[in-house]
Amino acid sequence: MAWSEYRNPAVADLALEQAEAVVHHLGDPSLSRAWLETDFSFIQYAQGRLADSLRHAERALAIKQQRTPPDPREVGLSESNICLILATQGRAKEALPHCDRSMELVESVLGWSHPSTVNLAENRVVALTELGRFDEGCRLADRIRAFFEERGEQIVGRVTLVPTLGRCAVNRGAPNEARALLERAFAAATRASATAMEIAAIEWELARATYASGDRAGAGQIANRAVRRYAALPELAFREREIRAWRADHRDLDR
Predict the structure, then answer these.
(1) Angle at Cα 113 formed by Cα 122 and Cα 61, nearest 5°?
(2) Residue spans per domain, the chain
(3) Virtual torsion, Cα 162, 168, 170, 174, nearest 10 deg
(4) By the 8 A CB rule, do 131 and 90 touch?
(5) Which tens digit of pLDDT belongs to each residue from 156-190?
(6) Between the CA atoms of 19, 98, 141 and 205, what dihedral angle is there, to the nearest 10 degrees?
(7) What is the pTM for the complete model shown?
(8) Is omega for the bond preceding 115 within 30 degrees of 0, making it cis?
(9) CATH assignment of 154-255?
């Protein structure tokens, strides 16, 4: 329930509270506790509480590593979660080794073509592109996109992947392509009542794509919306400063 209702904090928090009681009643079996810690981490991440999210993800990883023998799929999932949280905090250099370990572990068991492996690869793409490693990151992003589209999945619903795809399209000189994808993703996220953090990430990339496409005024309006969303997320204040600095460097935004 917590995972499926993560965009509804009241429901997600109640589900976690009840799950906590059940796991405690069962005597805190290690794998159940690890998964509950993962759930706590995910919900807090979605709500922009990144420091708490990281603490729970690290607890989940520690529990999984203590099992004999450790399950590489379980350990790999937690490594990937830590990678995404760190990258979202603006700590991509610290994040990438976690994603690298995650991919090595999960791919060794499931192979590349398994959906779980490809899901985790999305987080590695975020870290790579945040570090400016666009050649490697964007090739991987395109590979992930092709994988899911071949399975008939609507890519616009993948709120972690789409901002990166938009960033990649702008980087390779295709801002109109980026803008069209991000506008569809923004509409889909709005319909799905996505979290403020999810929408802000789309808007920030959409602002840059809109500017690169030649629509200065539109870019300024979108950037302003992203600033307001990030301003309500204290742990992402650095993104608000990043956008304000970008606006200052592009004085033609409101023309």
Answers:
(1) 50
(2) 154-255
(3) -90
(4) no
(5) 999 999 999 999 999 999 999 999 999 999 999 99
(6) 80
(7) 0.93
(8) no
(9) 1.25.40.10
